[in-house]
């Protein structure tokens, strides 16, 4: 049995041990990080696969959030009890790529088991994130998302704003928020989930600004963070100023925290979150929801560029029988089908990861019948991705994201200004990059 060498993620992260019950030769265990409405949809797709044939059965198991799921898999691998399939969020890609002996690359899995699989079928903005230097796809794209703007159309109307015209720039955002709060239509203008993902990673991509050297880490482990530029510092300072004016509220460091409840309650009229929140928001909002793209600063040359993906892919883990990998390959082939991908995209808000699923959704008039459902696709394809806007690949980025959130929170609490906080985030983050480089040379 190979040892799971995810040195980077193991640093500073508590581990847990999970035991799996005995399973049949053709049973596949899938550990995932999707609860709520998304988890229910995932379970249904899995059951549809199980019902479609008699040879294999996939058993999904919710293991907590992305970090908890990945941490649990590390402990399970060390105990020889790892699942066949592991869902890993995009910022864990660099760590998984360097997990010696732990991963069965998906291109190799599909080829060796004679299953249909062509990376050219997948959207370039998605597969580029998960390929090696030779263009081989290492994990199976499953749920890819990008942050978008959700807004309360009822509040817009009450404040005298056109609900068909969400703000396009950060300058307009401040104006809209001021009008809504002064009219008493909302207590705050906007809030956001995942501050690092939205207010740094995608902020930088939309403005064609680098997060780090060596093409944001795609070109090697020697990469260094360098996002402490004047534009990031200004934006973080603006968020602090807008908070003092009652236009913005810090929503916490994670996916939902206080941000989404503030949107549901009507306290904040605008929420920045994953396009995959569409299912939950549609199910829980008691007001009419509008959709818009991420804002940009009008005075930054080249903006808006394009946003980058979040979400996760499915990694096949080593240590199982050939018959079981045949089942994994069959499941991945099933998930690749346009009808399956289109259904997943339409029900959840995740991107259609294949061109065929996108085309099928259009043929089914999904975008015509659901205005705003293509916001994420349009935003990601605004322009051809650049070295700064094709994504990121940093080791230890799970912990680095925590650092970024801590430093942003220091700005929101008035302990630091934007420049000091971004400088400190870069310095602390680079220390973790050097730790990762040393552990994976």
TrEMBL record:
User: Ranges of Basic and acidic residues compositional bias?
Assistant: 414-427
Q: Which InterPro entries would you find in this protein's record?
A: Bact_solute-bd_prot1, SBP
Q: Which GO terms describe its cellular component?
A: periplasmic space
Q: Which UniProt keywords apply?
A: Signal, Transport
Q: Does the keyword Methyltransferase apply?
A: no
Q: What span is annotated as the signal peptide, if there is one?
A: 1-24
Subcellular location, in the record's words? Answer: Periplasm
Task: Kindly indicate whether the keyword ATP-binding belongs to this entry.
Answer: no
**Record region (Disordered):** 413-441
The record's similarity note reads: Belongs to the bacterial solute-binding protein 1 family.
| Name this polypeptide is given | sn-glycerol-3-phosphate-binding periplasmic protein UgpB
Q: Which organism is it from?
A: Vreelandella alkaliphila
